[in-house]
Amino acid sequence: MRLIFWNCNMAFHRKIEAILPLKPDIAVISECAAPEILALRGLDRFSPETCLWMGKNPNKGLGVFAFGDVALQRAEPFFPTLDFVLPVVVTGAVQFNLLAVWAQNANSGNIRKHTLGPLRRGLTKYRDFLSGGPSVMGGDLNNNIFWDKPGWRINHSKMVATATDLGLVSAYHEVMGEPQGSESIPTHYWRDRKKDGPVYHIDYAFVPRSAQINRFEVGRFEDWVGNGLSDHVALIVDITF
């Protein structure tokens, strides 16, 4: 099973060609338009069974796209007020649960330290969903342990601990052997979109501890950012449940 997680920085209808050669089974795409907008712009290959989307702005939300013999269904219960955490049941040759995320932490309130953030609330709301079978959680989480502050409820370390309790591990940290907060490869080239500009590691793929990670890759700057596609690189992970 190959999954791709990418914040495309909008205009996904023009950028899907960047992921098609990678032959994903599932793509979690942040900042993409709603299916009906994509269809109007020429990207009409997806059906309700192969594309799920959530968002408030039809031009900029969270999408999950299936390819090949893979189908998607939104899980119930669903909590649409969590910006943006989307529970998806994946069926086909392999069946598993997917929690797709584009975490809008800035929308959680003005006093950051007193807010849980949408993902931590989502991990509580969807705990049974994630513990009900093989599960994957990932996307643009907009957080990192190096931003943690004593007593802050939104601390990334608390989310990691909750994921660990659910039997999930970060594919990057498992493969690279680096501690959380000390990542040597960024995923987000903020503002300047340059290698020597502000860079952060804020995109993640959490997979079952019991799964076999056959491949994990953080996309190259040149392939995803340097060519003007986005300010994020993609994560590519192949796993066997």
Q: How much of the polypeptide forms β-strand, as a percent range? A: 25-35%
Low-confidence region ranges: none
Task: Measure the end-to-end span.
Answer: 8 Å
What percent of residues adopt helix (DSSP H or I)? Answer: 10-25%
Counting H and I runs of at least 4 residues, what is the number of helices?
7
Global shape? globular
Structural class: alpha+beta
Query: Biggest sheet: strands, sense, closure?
Result: 6 strands, mixed
* Radius of gyration using CA atoms only: 17 Å
Topology order in helix (H) and strand (E) letters: EHEHEEEEEHHEHEHEEEEHE
Strand ordering within the main sheet: 3-4-2-1-14-13
Overall pLDDT confidence? 95
Number of DSSP-assigned strands = 14
What is this entry, summarized?
Helix content is 18%, strand content 33%.
Salient structural properties:
18% helix; 6-stranded mixed β-sheet; alpha+beta; 241 residues
Task: Give the secondary structure arrangement, pairings included.
Blueprint: E1 2-7, H1 12-15, E2 26-32, H2 35-40, E3 51-57, E4 60-66, E5 70-74, E6 85-92, E7 96-102, H3 118-125, H4 127-131, E8 135-140, H5 156-165, E9 168-170, H6 171-176, E10 188-189, E11 199-200, E12 203-208, E13 212-218, H7 221-224, E14 235-240
Parallel strand pairs: 1-2, 7-8
Antiparallel strand pairs: 1-14, 2-4, 3-4, 5-6, 6-7, 8-12, 9-12, 10-11, 13-14
Description of the molecule:
With 241 residues, the protein is of the alpha+beta class. 18% of the residues lie in helices and 33% in strands. It has seven helices and 14 strands. The strands form three sheets. A six-stranded mixed β-sheet has the order 3-4-2-1-14-13.
